[in-house]
């Protein structure tokens, strides 16, 4: 049986990749919409990009209205900015939110259909050329055919997908991650780890996705604590950028499972950043599926060298000890520590469990997941 493996058309990776690659890029237009957030402007990263664009005689307009959970209303504003300024291609610079927003803007520029239509249809239309420059090591959006946008009318996160959403050019420059605060480094790094482990333990896993996933997992267990404890460690930052890319490639082709399915409703209803909502769910969700994924977790344990046992059950247990230690090292809180309105959370468990199940991600797990299972995990973690 053969497998298709999807990746961005062109990837530049390494320290100073942005400046090094700029002269070799054949830009598709002369007027770029830059999709970003206010923090990128304050950090001066936008100035770095716009200076390079000016040197190439490329005009640009900056759309910096993206927050950590992009919404359909934000996307509509971005579309208006793109069209009113006659832009002809798009650049996203920032974390996963600006990159996701860029993809959704490109979709909406190309289609008269509302974004919500694409929760049940693959996006397959021509769209503006897309260049992405990630500034965190975690979301993997620079490598994927997915984007997640909040539907404000229903308080749900829409998972939108299609190979056409793969960026045309991804520029992965670890230098941009040096300013990432330790807490964000931790949550985005755990997001990448979720991508890799979920892809490796997915029903849709294939040889190449598993190869990328295992290598990402090994890099993250070694380098994420180093980045957390010393944000200026450029070698560890580079390894984390590579790991995030590998993890993105793996879940782009094997999908995610229970963690992401349960994470999206928390983000939509309580506006918890995506990486953090994944992090607080990770241990419980993986623990729930381990009965049917014991061999997979045992293999991970041997790859990260946290076990010497040839017995899968023992090796699986050793993996969970290593995961627990990693989460503690990174000071990942419990779910009930980040939700202020617990009565409201409890009142929404039925809705969130249904939304999580309906997303389709839990069904990729090796263990069969029901709505009642999801309710039980939410209840266990909030109380």
Description:
The structure is a single chain. The chain is of the alpha/beta class. The chain has 2 domains: 10-177, Rossmann fold (3-Layer(aba) Sandwich), CATH 3.40.50; 182-382, Dehydroquinate synthase-like - alpha domain (Dehydroquinate synthase-like, alpha domain, Up-down Bundle), CATH 1.20.1090.10. Helix content is 53%, strand content 11%. The chain has 15 helices and 8 strands. The strands form 2 sheets. Strands 1-8-5-4-2-3 form a 6-stranded parallel sheet, with helices on both faces. It has a two-stranded antiparallel sheet with strand order 6-7. Helix 5 links the parallel strand 4 and strand 5 (129-134). Helix 11 crosses helix 12. One of its GO terms (molecular function) is metal ion binding.
Q: In terms of structural class, how would the helical and strand content be classed? A: alpha/beta
State the CATH superfamily name of the largest domain.
Dehydroquinate synthase-like - alpha domain
Beta-strand residue percentage: 5-15%
Order of SSEs: EHEHHEHEHEEEEHHHHHHHHHH
User: Count of DSSP helices?
Assistant: 15
CATH class of the largest domain: Mainly Alpha
Number of domains: 2
Coarse morphology: globular
What's the helical proportion of residues? 40-55%
- Distance between the terminal alpha carbons, to the nearest Å? 46 Å
């Amino acid at each position: 049986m053969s497998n298709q493996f999807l990746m961005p058309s062109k990837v530049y990776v390494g320290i100073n990749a942005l400046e090094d690659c700029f002269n070799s890029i054949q830009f598709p237009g002369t007027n770029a919409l830059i999709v970003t957030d206010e923090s990128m402007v304050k950090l001066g990263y936008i100035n770095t990009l716009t200076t390079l664009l000016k040197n190439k005689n490329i005009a640009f307009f900056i759309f910096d209205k993206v927050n950590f959970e992009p919404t359909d209303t934000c996307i509509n504003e971005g579309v208006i900015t793109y069209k009113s300024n006659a832009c002809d291609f798009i650049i996203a610079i920032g974390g996963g939110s600006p990159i996701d927003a860029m993809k959704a803007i490109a979709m909406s520029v190309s289609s008269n259909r509302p974004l919500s239509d694409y929760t049940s249809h693959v996006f397959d239309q021509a769209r503006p050329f897309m260049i992405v420059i990630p500034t965190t090591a975690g979301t993997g959006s620079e490598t994927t055919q997915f984007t997640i946008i909040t539907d404000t009318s229903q308080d749900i996160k829409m998972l939108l997908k299609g190979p056409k959403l793969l960026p045309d050019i991804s520029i992965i420059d670890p230098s941009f991650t040096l300013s990432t605060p330790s807490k964000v480094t931790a949550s985005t790094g755990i997001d990448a780890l979720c991508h890799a482990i979920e892809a490796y333990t997915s029903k849709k896993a294939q040889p190449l996705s598993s190869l990328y996933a295992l290598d990402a997992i090994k890099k993250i267990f070694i380098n994420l604590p180093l980045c957390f404890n010393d944000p200026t460690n450029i070698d560890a930052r580079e390894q984390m950028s590579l790991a995030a890319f590998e993890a993105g490639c793996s879940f782009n082709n094997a999908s995610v499972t229970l963690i992401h399915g349960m994470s999206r409703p928390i983000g939509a209803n309580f506006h918890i950043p995506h990486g953090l909502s994944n992090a607080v769910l990770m241990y419980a969700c993986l623990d729930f599926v381990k009965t049917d994924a014991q061999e997979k977790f045992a293999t991970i344990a041997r790859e990260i060298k946290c076990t010497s046992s040839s017995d899968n059950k023992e090796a699986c247990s050793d993996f969970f000890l290593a995961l627990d230690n990693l989460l503690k090292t990174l000071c990942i809180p419990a779910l009930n520590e980040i939700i202020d309105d617990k009565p409201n959370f409890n009142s929404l468990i039925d809705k969130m469990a249904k939304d999580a199940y309906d997303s389709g991600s839990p069904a990729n797990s090796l263990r069969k997941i029901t709505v009642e299972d999801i309710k039980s995990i939410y209840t266990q973690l909030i109380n």
